[in-house]
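Dear support,

I submitted the protein below through the web form. The confirmation email said the job was done, but the results page showed an empty box. After a refresh the structure appeared. I'm attaching both so you can tell me whether what I see now is the final result or a partial one.
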Amino acid sequence: MNALDRLGRHLLFSFDPEAAHGLSIKALRCGLPVGGRAPQDARLRVKVAGLDFPNPLGMAAGYDKNAEVPDALLGLGFGFAEVGTVTPLPQAGNPRPRIFRLVEDDAVINRLGFNNEGHDAAERRLAARAGRQGIVGVNIGANKDSANRIADYVIGVKRFARHASYLTVNISSPNTPGLRNMQAREQLAELLASVMIARAEAGQAVPIFLKIAPDLHEAELEDIAAEVTEKAIDGIIVSNTTIARPPLRSPANTGETGGLSGKPLFARSTAVLARMRKLVGPERAIIGVGGVDSTDTALEKIRAGADLVQLYTGMVYAGPSLPARIVRGMSDFARREGLENISELRDSKLDQWAATPL
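What the results page shows now:
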């Protein structure tokens, strides 16, 4: 971390985590902080699902829930930004407090529950950026009290297909009761079929990604891979937060309910990623998420089978200069190794990671 990042972390960590998050969004809206410049390196350009990414590092969903600052995030060095999760109707989410720092573990537990301003607010902001460059994905979800959650996803596809570079169907948050049940094969088959019909009806060939949990067993992964393949879903995002609790060092907050993100999630999410790559084959796009906080961890996701990687919690602890630092590190690595493109690294540790116990 540079001195500015250390100062910023000290300031933000003096606030409640949710208040600190709000302050960081306001700062980005005002043009601060400046994260440093990321290199424009042709060796880092990746074509995935028909989209040309300037580099493989993205901001994961969950940070910019209401599509307030996607362009500011791209300005920090990210090759793409994913906004949301957005639900058809605004919802407050779960009672506070609902975000907890595990400082000694570089981790966070959250039980936010899809708090967001709803489709109308997000669509208005995304429509206002029409014509701007940069890849911005939209992560769509269902309202907690929805009578028909599949219909919520269909509405999301139709609302955002013309505004999004890609859409992510998020059925893997642990903080909306029953949502993860949609990963079961019968429900998933109905959901994905409905989503693909909605995309066709919207008349937009926007790529569709499915975001899955890291807490899945082998048979569940096989079912998901089969449905993704059958329904011709463009890609998979592996993974959301975990309800598991690996050994943690932090003395406080480890017993809080919710999804765990950050460094402790890296190993399991990467092992699930590799298994999913084995199941879906080399052509389908995979985005690796979970514990990315450095150039080394980003590159390891690619070695395990990811085409692209995302982070969020890593920036909470390392500051806004992290994305530019990671991209510079990727550029330096590609130069040192004599790579024509960073994608040459993909799958180089696939077998090793796929054999890692879950």
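Response: this is the final, complete result; the empty box was a page-load delay. DSSP finds twelve helices and 13 strands in the chain.
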